[in-house]
Amino acid sequence: MTTLSLPSQTGHSLAELCVVLCLVAVAAAMAAPSVSHWLWRSKAEQAARAWAADLQTARLQALRTGQALQLKRLTGCASVLALGDWRCGWEIATPHGNQPATLRHAMNGELSVLLFPANDVLPVNSQGEPLAGGVRLQVMSRTHLMPVAVSVCMNTAGRLRLVKAQTCL
Questions:
Q1: Which domains does the chain have, with CATH numbers?
Q2: What's the whole-model pTM score?
Q3: Nearest-angstrom CA–CA distance, 140 and 125
Q4: Rounded-to-integer distance, Cα 109 and Cα 76, Å
Q5: Could you read off the pLDDT of 69-97 as tens digits, one per residue?
């Protein structure tokens, strides 16, 4: 008499699958704050680098054209902004506004972008020199849950450096 053999079954049981899914969920929950912190730091660094690059662009454009320019803040994302609050973004424009802005960097206001000393305009003369020295742009997350800060520091000679802190020390 011949016996029929059943094929051997391979795979995992439902209990094993549930245990693995629970372990993955716990690992994801532990990693979520780190990923969120990393994303906010990335956004702050990107905004600080963009502001520094746009200031350098204004300096080069002023030197190339022989025309004074300014980096000035935008006010489109909030109805009332304090002096020195650049969270809506910035643009490169002529001092008298007789020509359209050559470059505009709009932001949605999710980051705190503050210029110290507080000012709404950073002028650049026709030789490409910023007319304000000792300036610091501080970029932070607006929530206190993510203490992320990046500063763009400009010395009196106009040299820029990026610091991953709230101060330029």
A1: 17-163 (3.55.40.10)
A2: 0.79
A3: 29
A4: 9
A5: 999 999 888 888 899 999 999 999 998 87
